[in-house]
Amino acid sequence: MAYEFDFGAIVPHWKLLFDGVILTTELTVIGAVVGVGFGIMGAWARASRAPVISQIVGIYVELIRNTPFLVQLFFIFFGLPALGVKLTEFQAAVLAMIVNLGVYSTEIIRAGIQAVPQGQIEAAQSLAMNRLQIFRYVVILPALKKIWPALSSQIVIVMLGSSVCSQIAAEELTFGANYIQAINFRAFEVYFIVTGIYLVMSILLRMSLKVLGNYLFERRRHV
Amino acid sequence: MSEFTLWDIVYNLLLAGRWTVLLSLTAFALGGLVGLILLMIRTAGNPWLVRLVRGYVELFQGTPLLMQLFIVFFGLPLIGLDVSPWVAATLGLTLFTSAFLTEIWRGCVESIGRGQWEASASLGMNFTQQMRYIVLPQAMRIAIPPTVGFSVQVVKGTAVASIIGFVELTKAGTMITNATYAPFTVYGCVALMYFLICYPLSLFARHLEGKFRHVAR
Q1: Alpha-carbon gap, residue B196 to B190, rounded angstroms
Q2: Do the domain assignments include residue B32?
Q3: Which of B31, B78, B191, B202 has the fewest CB atoms within 10 Å, counting from its CB?
Q4: Which of B63, B66, B96 to mutate to test the interface with A (most CBs of A within 10 A)?
Q5: Residue B179 belongs to some domain of the structure
């Protein structure tokens, strides 16, 4: 007997998917904002003249970049309680997102900082600005502007990667899909629709980041 | 009840690690092959086919790898093909890899100057000859560093295959954790093994980047 598709079977459970979209969005927004914040600090540390700090951050970055997100998630959620750090599913998922985006944006922003012309930094030094002022007023905005497209793609990639957070029962979009297919056994239909939702979310996210980039970097030019 | 020593954990993880390596190699090789074919279609320039390849890339870059694996794993049985987790994981990762490699390589081919195409066309070369003798040999040099860099993403991607039940490094880690109740040690070892596979690749990619940047100037 041929299989009959029944996409209608998903409709009664729309609320689960809706809640999932909200949670995935929350994970992404918190991860992106805090992660990029850490990324800026990380890049600052990497560029710092104290080699020890720079090296410690460097090792941390390599450790995270060369291990899978899923394994990091399991380590945080199942492994850390052994050290007495107990986190809820949501907290563990958020932490993993922040750690990942923090590390990737450290590397991306560092590349942007290196691209700021040395002459501008020297000019700022000749105005008697200290290192923090130079970083804050001269370096960081042009650096961010330069690498904004790369940073945006990375945020989208991490948003898509958050689908594995369902494995520690964080109730994001994929978790909703798993839950629905466990109720009505319409696995293919559910995952097909949810894939479509992810596609729309990634397009919307990319667009919003573009708008945000325009707002952050274009306006300042005239000030 | 038998006791697990640290060596037992490491030994069992190493056994499972072979599957991670095998899956990565297979997905990378097949994905490279499909990616190359898509690249040809994309560069040959039939507008409908170009649009199709662009849609393909957009689809696989805009959706989670986990969803792609789920759709292959749950979708193929519906058209009468019974797939094992191994086949589903290989197929899913191949599609994923091909989409990313096509996009990376397209950038490399496009960086070859228009003049090269025109010069070779003026020598009476057809598209295949232009590709074979003029464009690909040059594009390949540029393409090697980012391709090696992307291989790290493929290795990390194989971890997701554990979710559809393919027993590789991550899945083995979960199973051993369930037997030993030592998640900290086990997942620590799992992460370390991924690191030992991925870090040399990262270093190699960076080394190549430095080398080729030097040559390009």
Answers
A1: 10
A2: yes
A3: B78
A4: B66
A5: yes
Provide the CB-side half-sphere exposure for A95 (13 A, CA). Answer: 16
Domain of B192, CATH number, reads 1.10.3720.10
- Please report where in the chains the tokens 């870090």 appear, as a residue: B199
- Compute the distance between CA of residue A201 and CA of residue B202 in angstroms, rounded to an integer: 30
The predicted structure's pLDDT at residue A223: 47
Contact between B103 and B39 (Cβ < 8 Å): no
pLDDT of residue A8: 84
Number of structural domains (chain B) is 1
Instruction: Report the CATH fold assignment for A13-222.
Output: MetI-like fold (1.10.3720)
| Chain A contact set for B175 (CB, 8 A) | none
Q: What is the pLDDT of residue A220?
A: 57
Is the residue at B96 inside a domain?
Answer: yes
3-state SS class at A85: coil
Burial code (b: 16+ CB inside 10 Å, e: under 16) for B42-63 equals: bbeeeeeeeeebeebbeebbbb
Q: Which positions of chain A have pLDDT values less than 50?
A: 223
Query: What ipTM does the predicted assembly reach?
Result: 0.90
**Amino acid at position A29, single letter:** V
Which pLDDT belongs to residue A77?
96
Which parts of chain B have pLDDT scores under 50? 217
d(CA B192, CA A72): 11
CB–CB of A26/A181 below 8 Å?
Answer: no
Q: What is the domain extent for residue B79?
A: 6-216
Q: Which amino acid does the sequence have at A133?
A: Q
Residue B198: its chain A contacts at CB < 8 A? 65-67
What is the amino acid identity at position B64?
Answer: P
Residue B1 lies in a domain: no
Indicate the domain borders of chain A. Answer: 13-222
Both tokens of B181, joined, read 């109740």
